Structure formats: C-alpha cells, structure tokens
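In response to a reviewer's request, we include the raw inputs and outputs for one of the modeled complexes. The two entities were modeled together in a single run.
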Amino acid sequence: MKRKQQCGRRRERIFSDICLIPSLVGVLIFFIIPFGIVIYYSLINNSITKQFVGLDNYTKLLGNSAFLEASKNTSLFSLTAVPLSVLLSLGLAMLLERNIPGKSIFRTFFLSPLMVPSASVVLVWQVLFHNHGTINQITEFFGGQGTDWMNSGKGQVVIVMMFLWKNLGYNMILFMSALCSIPKDIIEVADLEGAGRLWKFVHIKLRYLSPTILFVLILSLINSFKVFREVYLLTGDHPLAKLYMLQHFMNNTFNSFDYQKLSAAAVIFAIVMIVIMAILLITENIFGKDVEN
Amino acid sequence: MISLKKQKKAASYAVWAFIFTAALLFLLPTVLTLANSFMTSNEISANYGALFGNMTDNKKVFMSENVNLKFIPDKVTLDQYKAVLITNSDYLMKFWNSVMLTVPITVFQLAVAILTSYGFARYPGKIKSIIFFAYIILMIMPYQVTLVPNFLVADKFGILNTRASVILPAIFSPFSIFLLTKVMKRIPVSYVEAAKLDGAGELQILTKIYLPLCKSAIISVAMLVFIDYWNMVEQPLVLMNDQDYHPLSVFLSQINTGDIGLAFAVGTVYMVPTILMFLYGEDYLVEGITTSGGIKG
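The model returned the following structure tokens for the whole complex.
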C-alpha cells in the first residue's frame, strides 16, 4: 500500500516536472545558451579571429572611464530611487490605511501612471522641467531662482522623481494588502498592554511587512533598470555625464558593434545582480523564519 | 477631551489634503496628454514651441519663450484626431502592429507562466528553487544584455525582421512566472488534498483548483505584461529593420522632433486600450497584486 502511494506520488511529481519543460526549453534557447555565447564573446579578442584572450576584455573595461562613470551613476540612481520608493510607498499605504473618503479613487489616481505611454510621459516631463518650463515658472513666480533641470546635476533628481511617479502606486497596493494581513488580535493585545504607535510599528508591523518589503525591493530594482527608456527619450544617446547610465553605455557599445566590450559589461552586471539577489534572499530566509516563530 | 477630538479631526483633514494633492500630481500627466490632444496645432506650438527649436518658421511667430502648461484648450478641436485616425492611415497600421505583437506575447507568456508556476509551486524542491533563482536573475537583466543574445538567436533561426523575432523571446520572459509562482505557493495544501480524495488527477488540480483560485492574479499579471510590451521601443528597433512592422510605441518615441500636437493625440489613442483595461480590470489588478506580496508567498 505504502509503495503504491509512493508510486502515485512520483507520477504526480513527474507531471509537475513536465509542466516546467516548455519554459525551460524556451529559456534555454532564448536566454541561457545565448548568454553562454555572451560569456564566450567576452573572452575572445574579436569575432573574426576569435582568439582567446582570457580576462583582457574585463581589465580593459574596468579601466574604461565611460563604464566606470556609468556604473557609478547607475548605482547612485538605484541606491536612492529604490529605498525611496520602498519608504514612500509604505508611507502612502499607511496613510491610505485609514478610512478616508475617496480612498478607492485615490488608489486609481496613484495607479494611473501605469496607463500612460512612455513617450507621452516624456513629453509632459519636458514641459514641466524645461528651462522655461512649469516648475521654473512657479518658483520664479514665488521669487525663487529657476534651475536648468535637465542640463545640470539636478537631472538626477528629475529622473528619480519620474521613477517614483511611475512605480509608487503599484508598490503602495502591495503594502496596503500586506498591512491588511497583519493579524488584528496581535495589535489589540499590544494596545491593551499600552504599546505606543512607534513600538507597534517597529515590533509588529515591520516584522509582518518584511517579506513584502523585500518583494518591493526586488521589483523596484528591476524597474529601476527600466527607467532608462524614459531617460533615453528625454536626453538621447549622450546625455550629461551625471545622467550617463550603464544602459547608455551598453546601448552605445551595442550600436558601435563592440560586442566584446558589451559582453564583458553584461557578464559583470550579471555577477553583481547574482550577489545582490543572493543577499536579499538570504535575508528573506532569516526574517521569514523570524515571523513564523 | 473635546479638544483632543478636534485635534484628531484636524490631523485627518491634513492627511486627506496631502493625499488629495499627491493623487492629483500622479494623475496630471494623463490629464495633460488628454487635454492637449484637443488643442489646435497653433495653440500647441504657442505653448510648447520653446521645447523644440526646429519648428517651421510660420509657427515660430506664435511661439512664446516660455513653455506653458495648459489644461483647457482655447478652442477644442478634433483636427489632431482627424489626422491620426482618418487622413493618414499610417498610425492605424502601426497601432495594428502593436496589437499583433502585444496580444500574442501576453497570451502565450501567460500560458507558459501558468504551467511553469504550477510546476514550481507544486512539489517544490532543491533543484526547482535553484532554477527559480536563475529565473529571477534573468528577469533582472536589463534588455541591453538580452538583446544581443536575442539578436544572435533570431539571426540563426532566420526570423530576423519578422514579428516572431520579437514575440518568441518575450513569451519566455520569466516576469510573470515570478509573480504567479508566489501566488500559487499560497494555495493551501488542504484544498489539493480534498480534491485528490474526490479522485482528481494532477491536470484537474491545475484546471479546477489552481486556475480558479489564481484568476485575479492571472488577470493582473496579464495587464502588467500587456502594458510593458505595449510600450516597448528597443526590441522592435533592433530586431525588425522594416519600419512597416514597427509598433506605434516606436513611432511615438520618435515623434518628439516633429509635430507635438499629433504626439498628444497619438498618445491618447495609444492609451485607449490601457484605459479600457483599467476601467474593467482595476479591481482584478488590485486583487491580483494583493495576492502576490511576500517573497516566498
């Protein structure tokens, strides 16, 4: 009987394995094998003589000032935009957690950036942040001094704002649902024991929110790399040094057919991502167990 | 006691005012695009001419040095729409191209993702979680990294310059697998056990239990995938040389230098499917997002 059950279980297991096959085949053909080729490309001198040069392309890349500038700018952008988006969307979610009139309409408004095509967003953004644009006109109206947003260091601020504008709504809903799922009785017990708001937030809410925080972190990280499309439409191939992102670098090397440089950059990018993700998932495991106990 | 109550009330008004302002700011670009699409081209160039130096001379006469933000047109006109929808068939053709790319991508990516997520969620194991981790890494890669491999593969298969070169890699993009697996992992084992006692096979467990329980999540992921590819610019540009195949999003991204009035009208036309999706599917979207929080689900 037991053996039969095991057999049945194995058959079921096989069905769930089979379900993975279409995706595995597709990913293998369209992502993994080509990525293998990318790694190969990063180790040879050029696509014609195909001589193996070891890590030459990598050392060259790490000495390339455009690459270094791009990496610096991209990390700076992600390190500001991602934590900001987590904090602000959590804040918004907590504000909207109260029963305020018009809650569901506000929710729709916050989600509305998802609807607008990137190109139209860029048009509007240009109107707002142009040298003689709306924002400057408002500041000048109140006696302030306008700034040339797109052609100065402030450009980064504009891009962070654009990123937040586009992604806060979605993250906010993730947090709203997470806040809803915190068991009410735990909060009530804490209330009875006279716990303060801050204590409740740190010791109860944050713990239950930690899986969602990590999820939002990952999503924001992914989306922070997608913001390049808007930056590109806003500023073109070669923006000011401060706005020159890793994706600009890759785009330009792609257009100049320098596959060796591009491949090495892609591999370095992948390695950095693997490390970041591993850290995030390990943290998740530690915190996840904490909540279960 | 009363003053405390009053204080609380004042605070909640302040919160409301804050959220109201923030929400309006979020809605602004949508409204602006809509409003400007009804303006005459002269009004547009008078307001935004300063943005683009290369306007024709007769329009420069109307141009002010400032860029003016305007919500209410002086004169409401459908001229831009006439140009987009009737006079020039190019836009509708490109709109159709967008549909022909985005719909198959969304449908097939979801089909693959449902099967795969089921595979990951039911009977999880060490090997499966390693594969899942690899999928997350793939998902994070910016398209510039995957574009070269995609280009090479499309070239090898001889599908370069066809819609398939854009559609096929997109079908296997792991984004929806990542979201759906989380949702499916949350389905209680007891449901599955109960179905098994009733004699349900694995296929039935997938179609009769997993699918209905994940309905809103599936719809919400489908909406996200649709929006993502509806706005794609880079993949068609690199993989399809022939402009006749380009979706409207590519065209929209190149319009900046030309007639901006048209750009707003085209932008609005391009928003119609997403707006409709929101009107009919926002509750699904919210419910779907709601079930997908949490890293492991």
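As requested, we also summarize the result in words. The longest helix of chain B spans residues 2-36. Residues 54-63 of chain B have pLDDT under 50 and may be disordered.
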